[in-house]
Sequence to fold (239 residues):
Amino acid sequence: MKHFALIGFPLGHSLSASYFAEKFSREGIDAEYSPLAIEQAEEVLPYCSRLSGFNVTIPHKQAIMPLLAEISEEAQAIGAVNCVKVCEDGRLVGYNTDVIGIRKSLEGVELQGRKALVLGTGGASKAVQYVLRKGGADIKVVSRSKGAANLTYEELSEELIRECRLIVNTTPLGMFPKVESAPQLPYSALSSEHTLFDCVYNPRQTKFLQLGAAQGARTIDGLTMFYAQAEASWEIWND
Fold:
């Protein structure tokens, strides 16, 4: 039996273990996928001798990188890893499958020349920024602190929101169990011309998306991204 895992902290929001358990049962795969709630990325190292691969979630997508023997060219360019393959010789090789899920989620959304806001500066944000820039979008990154991004939430005026027709939430705001939280935006400035994409998938309809939909905005939840990155990880582990 092969063993796989998800590392992060906390992991109460994650559906990865149930997703892979259903996949293994449905497809008759002799494998196991377990959540490993670890506070420091290096704590995964003692487990690697029995793992064939693992996923990486908040807050370890950047912290895991110095521990890896190799990193794919795309993950290196992004600056974040969410999928690690444990090779037979024990080497750890990092990839970013979030980009596959992001591209899938944004199919049909015109990016070229579009002004966009990316909320958050973590690993998911880096993958979103990479995809949007590749698509030709003009992006600004928003954070609680000025040094980490172009803008703070306090600087998000109604005029700026009206100009930026694509807004992507990469923060954990709204994630289970804190489902009533949402990024602080002037939501009244949103319209049917806007598209809101949330990388959070649990719950599927976050407060961020609900507030956008109330203003007529198109909304995209994080479930497509979750499914696509999970399947891409499985392909990497079994290549």
In short: Residues 23 and 29 are 8 Å apart (CA to CA). The chain has a mean pLDDT of 97.
